[in-house]
Every structure is written in C-alpha cells, then in structure tokens.
Amino acid sequence: MPYGDGILESPADRYGKTTLCMRNAKRLFKCAAYVVYFVGVLVFAVASKGSFLLMTQSLGNRLQEKQYASRWSLMLVATICVPYVFLFLEALAKSLFRNRHGPVFTDLITIFVLESIHTFGVCLLVFRVLPSCDVIRGLLLMNAVCTIPAFCKLTLSKSNSKPMLRFLTLFVDLAAFAAQCSVYFIVTSTQFTAFLTKPSGATTTPATAIGDSLASDSLDAMKAAADTIEQVQLRFGWEAPVALFCVSIVWWENYVDRDIKLGKLNIPLGTYKRHLQSIRSKANIGASIWKIALTVAFSYLLLPRDHFENVFVSFNSNRVGNVLTDTSLHAGSELNNYDAGPLSNQFDMNGNDLPVRHKRQMPLFPGGGGGVSDDNNTIMGKIGGNEQMTLFSNNDDDPSVAAADPFDIPPDREKTIEDYWHSLGPFVPMIIHFFSTGLCYYFSKSACKMQMQRVAFAVPLTLATPVTLAIMIGLCQWKTDQIVLIREIMYWECSENLSSTRITWHIVVGLSLWYLSQLWITSHVWFPENKRLATTETLFVLPQYDSSLIEQSLLLNRRRNEPEHQKNIFEDHLKGLGMAPYSEDEKLDNNTKIYLCGTLWHETISEMILILKSIMRMDIDQSARRQARDEFQVIDPDYYDMEAHVFFDDAFYHDENQQRTLNIFVNDFFEAINKAAGIVHDVEGMKLAPPQKTATPYGGRLSWRLPGGNLLVVHLKDKLKVSKKKRWSMVMYMYYLLGYRILGQCEERMKSLTKVIEDSPDKRNYRRHFDQNEDLHVYYKDILGPRLLLEAENTFILSVDGDVDFGPDSVRMLTDRMKKDKKVGAVSSRIHPIGSGPLIWYQKMEYAMCYWLQKTTEHSLGCVLCAPGCFALYRASALMDDNVMKVFAARCESPEDYLLRDLGEDRFLSKLLIEQGYRIEYCAAADAYTHAPETFTDFFNQRRRWIPSTLGITVSILK
C-alpha cells in the first residue's frame, strides 16, 4: 500500500467551530463589553448629576449679575425640556406609522393632571429647592423621591405566596416607606440651608480708600441679607417636601399590580393602569407639549422676574463717556482689591447709596492706573492700559452701564483661551449634561436589551450616588468653601466644615434612610426577566427619562413584572380581535415551532449537501435543547420544535412506456443525505435508516427520522399532476402546514361562523380589508380561539433554497426579531455568495452593498421591501391573513401577473405582507451562504428574472 493511502480526509463539519484563540478572544471581547457598559453608565450618570447640580448651584448664587442668573434659568429650562422634545417626536412617529389606540377625553384629563403635578414638582425642585442647598445636601435629597412608589409597593403590589417571606417583605416595605417619609420631617426641623448664612464666594474686606462709612453701612446690608436667608429657610421647609412628593407621583404605574378593594368599594386602579399603557403613545403627543409649556410657565412663576431679562448683554467700550481718571489710584492701592460683590447696595464717598452694576470680585485696575471721577459719581478702571470699565454709577440711564459685560474683550487685544472660557464656560455644564444624560439612558437601555442588566445597569446606577458624593466631599475638602470654575458665576457651593456634627448627621441620615430605602424600592432591577432584545416599551414603563433625576428615573422606571406585562399585552390583543380572554385553566402552547421548508430542482450533490448539513445542525441543536428540558428541567427561552420539509420540483421522468421513474437528481439526493449526516456527526460512512415511502396525489413522499429525533419529509412533485416552479412549492407548504394543520383543527367552527356571517353580514366586525364587491367570507382570526391564535403567532416558516448553508445561531437571531413584535411578518437575513472567479468577486461586492447599505437603510426607515427567498423567516399568522396566502396562490391571468408572481415570488410575497400592514425587518447577525452564478450565462439568466420583477413590484407598490 502506498504511503499516502492511509491518510483519509476528515469528514467533520467545521461550521461554527473555532480555535481556542478565537474562543478566548470572544470571551475577552465579552468581558470588555461588560466593562465598557459598566464604566459608561457610571461615568455618564455621575457627570449628569454633577453638571446638573453645578447649574442649580450657580442659579442659587444671590450675588451674581441678573444676566448671568438669566442664563442659568434658561439653560435649566432647556435641560428639563429636552426629554419632552424627544418624547414628542417618538410619540408622533409611533402614532403615524403604527396602529395605536387613542385616548378619550377623560383619559386626557387624567394624564394631563398627573403630568402637571409631576412638572410642578420638578420645577419646584430645580428652581427653588436645589439652588437653596449646598451640593452635598442637594445630592442626598435626590434619593428621597420614592414616596409614592414606596406606598404603592407597600399596599398595591402582589405579595409573596410564602407567609414568612410575605411578612418579611411587608416589614421591609413599611420601613422603606417610613424612611422615605422621614425627609418631610428632617428638612423642616433641621437647617438644611444653613450654609446660606455665609457670603457666597465674596470677600468682605472693606476698602479704606472709600472711607470708613462704607464699612459701617455694610452692616445694614448684611442684616438685610440675613433677613432674606431666614425667608429662604422658612420657604424651604414646605417647598422641599412638596417638590419631592410631586416628583414621585409619576412612577406610580410601575408599582400598582392590582385594584384597590375596601369592602364593597372597588377602585380599578390596576385595570386603569393597563388602559393608560395602551393609549400612551398618542396621549404623549399632547402631554409632551403640555409639559414643555408648564415648565416654561412654572419657571417664570418660581423665579424672580429679572431672571428672564437681559439674557445676552454685551459690553461696548466705545459707549463709555464722561470719564475722568485720577492717577492717585494705582494698581497697588487697597481699592484695587475691593470686593463689589457681597452687598446688596454700594455707596459713594459721601455715604450715598448707588445702584450696583457689577459685583464681580476682580481688581479694579489690572493694567495699572485708574481712578475716580471728580464728581464722585463714577469709579473707573483701565483695562490693558487703554480701555476703561464702569464699576459703579448712579446714572441709571447710562447706556454704557446698561450694556456692560465683563466677558467682552477690547478690540485691540487678542482673545486668549481664558477669554473663550469666560465667554463659553457657562454653557459647558448644559452641554455636558445633555450628552451625558442621553448617553447614560442609551447605554442603560442597551445593557438591558443585551441581558447585561445586573452588571451594566443595576450596579453602576446604584453606585452613582456614593461615587458622586465621594467626589464632592473630596473636592470640598480640597476647596473648603467653593469649587469655583468661573469666579462668582459657576461653582459648587460646599457645606460648612465637613467635620461639623450637622453635616455629618445629614450625610448619615441621607445615606442610611433615603439612599438605602431607594435601593430596596428599586430592588427589582437585580432580578430581570426580560427576553433578549426586548423592546423599550417592555423594559420601561414610561418612555424617555427625567433629565434632572437620571439615576432615579431609570431605576424606578424599569418595569417590575415583565411576564405579567406580556400577558396583559396578549389579553389586549385578544380583546382587540373581539375574543374573550382565556381562562387560567386553559393551557396555551407558547413554544416556538419552526417549519424548515426548502425547494430543490436540479441542484448538484455539493449544493444538496449544503442544505442537508444545515438541517442536520438544526436537528442536533433542537435535540440538545429538548433533552436539557426533559431530563434536567432547564428553562430554555430559545427552545423550539422543528420539522423539515423539502419540496423536489420535477422529481420524475416518464419513459417510453409512460412509466414514472425517479430522475437522477433524486438519486443524488439519497447519496447526499448520507454524506451530510456523516460530515455533521463526524462519523465516516454513516447511513440513515431507509425512509418511509408514501404515495400522494402530487407524486410521492419520503420521510426520514433524523438522528436527533426530528422529521425530514421530502415531497416529490410530478409535473404532470401539480404545477412546477418555486412559487407553487411555496403554495403547497403554506396550505399544508398552515391551512391543513392549524385551520384544519377548527373546521366545524369555521362552518358555523360562515353560516352566521351569511345570515347576518353586520356581525362581521374584525376584518381590516373588506370591499363591498367581495364575496363574504370569515376572517381567519375570527375562527381561531386563544390557543390556536397563539400557536399561529409562534409558528414560523423558514424558507430556504436548495443550495444555502446556515447554522442554528442564524435561525435563533431571526426568531428573536419575530418575538419582539407581533406585527413583524417576515425577517430578512444577510446573504453571502460563495464560489470562485471574477464574477463571484463582483457579486460579493454587490451583495455587500445591497445588505450593508440598502437593507440597513430600509430597516432604519421602517420596513424592508423584500425578504429574499433563499433564507427568510415568515410568521404563520401573517401568511394566513387576508389578501396574503390566497392572493399569492392565484393563477397568472395576464403577462403582468406572470412578471410579478412567477419571476419574483419572494418579492411579491413581501409586497402582500407590507400591504396588509405587517413589517419586514432585517437582521444582519443572521448569516447564510449560498452559491452564486459563476458563469456569465447563469448570471444573465438570473438577472433576466430579477430585474423585470423588481421594477414591476416597485411600480406596483407605488401604485
């Protein structure tokens, strides 16, 4: 025997098998994704909270110019309204492009009242409460917005079935509710605004050049400021509790699981919550506009009037007149370090009151030289030795004073980085908050969809408050009074000495009562039950987020009972179809069932092996899932039942004696199935048991029992008994699998309903497309009960060609898209051409452009226009709908029919689904490989069919 004869080619299937290096790379990439999402959510949450507190602290600066206060006011209003704008656009898009229920007048009243209360609470918290607190106390108050959720969780949530656990849960819920309510007593009985008693960022050293009378008169101004502080403390006592209570009311829906029953009194709060969720899309169009208007109105009512005047004031040095310079006042004089900020009024040399124009703490004469006018009415200072700035003036009509802005730069001096920072710096917190809040919401939502909730959602949002608090304490220890970014304009106000008993007690109370109770109230985020790639409506009760409380809004808004939500959606779906909800005793089959349907004609052995290997892989995967479920009681959300059907076109030829005989391609199939089994199972020379043969009216049927226990049925079509071509093979498996197996179970009900409709046509209420010239017939959903309807919605047909190669993971990706939305009628995969030669190179580029650009764009815009028949998944209930399967099975009566139906059957079927209201989506993660034409003749014949049908279908859709 020659040396090389002992070496055999391995028949093992290498599909989906990777090296150790690739597996480790995947694990490393997965760990990196966890780290990126964890760090992203944490960093963006901390940045959002810090930047928002910076804006509220700057708004609370009582010593700043009114144009600066106006800027902070408008930026906070814009910050609050940004999510409302997104909410309006999202609600408008859903209402325009999806079928949604609309609210009635009473629903609008209820929604508007609740949103008004919440908006008032947010505005009161942002414009009055937080600006009156230092940064640490303001951060702690943000954890006390769970009063209403805590009460609903205590009284209206479903209890645990075990008595001991029910008692412990009730006790902890009561403690959490008491801890949240403690904020109402603590803020009223303790000095939460004690830091206001010290001047905010000002130096109170008097200037001897002005005179001793200025120092004595400043005491009166300080006394007036103290009176204002007392008013703020008194007002804070009721504003903080009211704001926290009103803010918490918006999250009541997530914590109400049942109706309120008090004796014979029954308040259907849980039922009404379900009703609100069904009409929320259209109601949010008006609610978002209403909240924007209320935010603007409340900000105007809660803030001083001058906060909205002279928002953009500029300094014009050319308009300064009547200036006399006294060189006796030089850069080294004590007046040069005079502070113009801490007093509410300034005084001239004679002790007369002068209106304050600029209160920034800054050298009066930074460039050397300067002075006081002879009439003692105006103090002037040189800027850069040339320009002068008016600091105090008793002339209210002086245009130079009214237009003064210390951010302006003289025209003869080049702007520096510091100048740009002073000009644009106040807008930086708003920009940081806008992007950090939006990215935090996006990363959090994506983490929940990808089932990374514990690590990348719950942990970082739980740590957001402690991390922010630690950063603030560290910075305040470094800068004892303020963390100044722009002097007297943008800073964090620190508390009194952190070693004092009062602030220490406030921190301990805030963390032990409010923060820990918030963790218990939002403990459901640690036990997610959502499916993979769940929709945002499934993950969160309310759309969008709250920009002022990003951490709390995400935690409290994350849906608690997702299986109950899915059940409610299905019951509402049945109600919309005019069906009674199913009883608890009725068992509903919610398992996914996949019919793999392939069409063969004159494929070669190598091409047949591809589809048979794919079927074998599906058989192995389904068998493993079935054994894990049956033997180890594993709950597999991706479990499915499978059955494969292959339709062989023109499977017979007739000899001279008209004897029917299997053609050569069917004989090749017998050889290919054994080779495919040996390759996939890695057993050389493996042979399956002989198939069961059955004669049928259309030709014959061969049935194999695959090694995994699933069924493979090969339907042999005789062209003399049944129409050939792919469309008629598709019609055969649609009518057999859907019409016979599903609708055939309720034949008697169909007959009775048909008689009722014929006798009383007005009783037929649920069909969406009905023309008066049509014959009356029963809409298929009218005859399906809940059990069969759910079975049809969870039954999918995987349409494949005879030369396609795919794996179970690709099918799982397609079914994930189907499970997300019942209105998805089909899902398209990403097709890769295989072969060799220059023509294959061109087609690879063409396919890449088609799928990566065209189908991705169509999917992003709302709906893919064509699901390619070589590898696509269809929903059974969508195919059974009116004007889909029946129209698809109609015979061609004109050249136009032949062009649309026979030359482009997959595109024609997609057109019928779209016209019936279903969407077609694209899943780029589902890869399939198919043989592409390698010769110009085959390529020309393929495009001769594709191009006319594509143009014809496009024109038909436009009509």
UniProtKB/TrEMBL annotation:
The keyword Transmembrane helix applies. InterPro entries: Chitin_synth (IPR004835), Nucleotide-diphossugar_trans (IPR029044). The chain crosses the membrane at residues 32-52, 72-92, 104-130, 136-156, 168-187, 283-303, 420-443, 455-475. It is a multi-pass membrane protein. Its main location: membrane. One of its GO terms (cellular component) is cell periphery. Coiled coil: none annotated. The keyword Manganese does not apply. It is an enzyme of class 2 (transferase). Pfam families: Chitin_synth_2 (PF03142). It is found in: Membrane. Its EC number is 2.4.1.16. GO terms for biological process: chitin biosynthetic process. Keywords: Glycosyltransferase, Membrane, Transferase, Transmembrane, Transmembrane helix. This is chitin synthase. It comes from Rotaria magnacalcarata.
